[in-house]
From TrEMBL:
Source taxon at top rank: Bacteria
Coiled coil spans: none
GO molecular function, one term: homoserine kinase activity
Source organism phylogeny: Bacteria, Pseudomonadati, Pseudomonadota, Gammaproteobacteria, Alkalimonas
Cytoplasm recorded as keyword: yes
Residues in GHMP kinase N-terminal domain copies: 65-153
Start and end residues of each GHMP kinase C-terminal domain: 229-291
Organism from which the protein derives: Alkalimonas mucilaginosa
Compartment(s) where it occurs, according to its Swiss-Prot or TrEMBL record: Cytoplasm
Protein name: Homoserine kinase
Encoding gene, per UniProt annotation: thrB
Enzyme Commission code: 2.7.1.39
InterPro entries reported for this sequence: GHMP_kinase_C_dom, GHMP_kinase_C_sf, GHMP_kinase_N_dom, GHMP_knse_ATP-bd_CS, Homoserine_kinase, Ribosomal_Su5_D2-typ_SF, Ribsml_uS5_D2-typ_fold_subgr
Length: 318
C-alpha cells in the first residue's frame, strides 16, 4: 500500500542566528507548504517520478535528484543494500528560494526511508544524515533548514552538543508572511558572498543579538525579542543580491509589520507580524510589489509545531 510522507518549508537564520536558528512554517489556511514523497512499492531498481507546482525546476534526470541520493546515503549509513523503491515526489517548494527546498526533499526522504524500514536510525543520527546531505548541496554542513523541517518549531542549533538542536518558545499570535518572488538564488553563491572572516565588533554584535532574542523568547518579552531582530552577518553581505529589501522594509514598517528579514539565502523574504490583520496587509503588499512571475507565491503562515510526518490524507497533495 502506498505510504505518503510530508516535510514543511523552513526559514533558515531568522535574522539573528546565521546557520544557528531556523523555523518551520505552515499556511494558516491549512494548505500544505512542503514536499510530499510517496513510497509506492518495492521493485528491482529504485525509480523516481515527479509532479507538483515546482517539479519543472528540478533536474530532468532523476538520478541527480536528492531523493535518490538520500536513498544511497541511507543505505551507506546502514551498511547494507535495501530493495529498490518506486518513489514519487510532489515538489511543492521552489528550488533556490530560501524556503529550504533542498532540505525539505532531504528531510522527507530520510524520514520516509527510516519510517518505512522500521526506524533503524535514531533521531540524532537521522538529523546528522540530513545535515550531511544538505552540506553536499550548499557547500557546507548547516542544520538550520533540516532541523526545523524534521522536528518542527523554532529550532536553535547546538553545535558540539549531542542534542544537536533545541526547540525555543514562540509567540502563538505571531504570523509570518513568506513571499517568494519567483526568481532563484543559489544557496552556494549566496554563502560565497559572505566574508569568511568578520571583525570582532561584528562577532560581538552577532552574539549580542542572538542572546538578546533567545533570552527574550524564554521570558516572553515580545518587544525585546522584536527589537533584537537585526541581521548583522548575512544581510549586509547579501544586500546586493536583493536590492529591493530597503524599499520593501520601509513600506511594510509603515503598515505595522514588526520585522522584515531574508528567509534563508533568499530571495524569499519573511515579514513578522503581530496580528492576522497586519499579516493580511503585508501579504497583499508583497504580492503586489515583490512577486515577479508566475512561479511566485505569498503565504500567511504560523509556526509549524510538527515537522516531518506521515500524511493521513493524501488528497491534500497536488
Ligand atoms: N528534490 C530536490 N529538491 C531541491 N533541489 C534539488 C532536488 N534534487 C536536486 N536538487 C538540486 O539541488 C540544488 C539545490 O540548490 P540550492 O541549495 O541553491 O537550493 P535550495 O536548497 O532550494 O535553496 P533554499 O534552501 O534557499 O531554498 C539545485 O541544483 C537543484 O537542482
Ligand atoms: N543558513 C543558510 C540557510 C540557507 O537556506 C544560509 O543562510 O546560507
Amino acid at each position: 500500500m502506498t505510504q505518503y510522507y510530508y516535510a514543511p518549508a523552513s526559514t533558515g537564520n531568522f535574522s539573528v542566528g546565521f546557520d544557528l536558528l531556523g523555523a518551520a512554517f505552515e499556511p494558516v489556511n491549512g494548505q500544505l507548504l512542503g514536499d510530499v514523497l510517496e513510497i509506492r512499492a518495492e521493485c528491482a531498481q529504485s525509480h523516481l517520478s515527479l509532479s507538483g507546482r515546482y517539479h519543472h525546476q528540478l533536474p530532468t534526470d532523476t538520478d541527480h535528484n536528492l531523493i535518490l541520493r538520500c536513498y544511497q546515503l541511507f543505505q551507506q549509513r546502514l551498511g547494507k543494500e535495501l530493495p529498490g523503491l518506486e518513489l514519487h515526489l510532489h515538489k511543492e517548494l521552489p528550488v533556490g528560494s530560501g524556503l529550504g527546498s533542498s532540505a525539505c526533499s532531504i528531510v522527507v526522504a530520510c524520514y520516509a526511508f527510516n519510517h518505512y524500514f522500521g526506524e533503524p536510525l535514531s533521531k540524532p543520527d537521522l538529523l546528522q544524515l540530513m545535515a550531511e546531505a544538505e552540506g553536499g548541496v550548499s557547500g557546507s554542513v548547516h542544520y538550520d533548514n533540516v532541523a526545523p523541517s524534521y522536528l518542527g518549531g523554532l529550532q536553535l542549533m547546538l553545535p558540539g552538543s549531542s542534542r544537536l538542536s533545541r526547540a525555543l518558545p514562540w509567540f502563538d499570535h505571531w504570523r509570518v508572511v513568506l513571499c517568494y518572488p519567483g526568481t532563484t538564488l543559489s544557496t552556494k553563491a549566496a554563502r560565497e558572498a559572505i566574508p569568511p572572516q568578520l571583525p570582532l565588533a561584528t562577532c560581538i554584535d552577532f552574539a549580542a543579538g542572538l542572546s538578546r532574542f533567545i533570552s527574550a523568547m524564554y521570558v516572553q518579552d515580545e518587544a525585546e525579542a522584536l527589537a533584537a531582530l537585526q541581521d548583522v552577518v548575512a544581510e549586509p553581505a547579501r544586500a546586493l543580491l536583493m536590492p529591493e529589501l530597503p524599499a520593501l522594509r520601509q513600506a511594510l514598517t509603515g503598515l505595522g509589520v514588526a520585522h522584515l528579514g531574508i528567509s534563508g539565502a533568499g530571495p524569499t523574504v519573511f515579514a513578522l507580524c503581530s496580528s492576522e490583520q497586519i499579516a493580511e496587509q503585508a501579504a497583499a503588499y508583497l504580492a503586489a510589489h515583490y512577486e515577479k512571475n508566475q512561479d511566485a507565491m505569498t503565504h500567511i503562515c504560523r509556526l509549524a509545531p510538527q515537522g516531518a510526518r506521515t500524511l493521513k490524507d493524501p488528497t491534500q497533495c497536488s
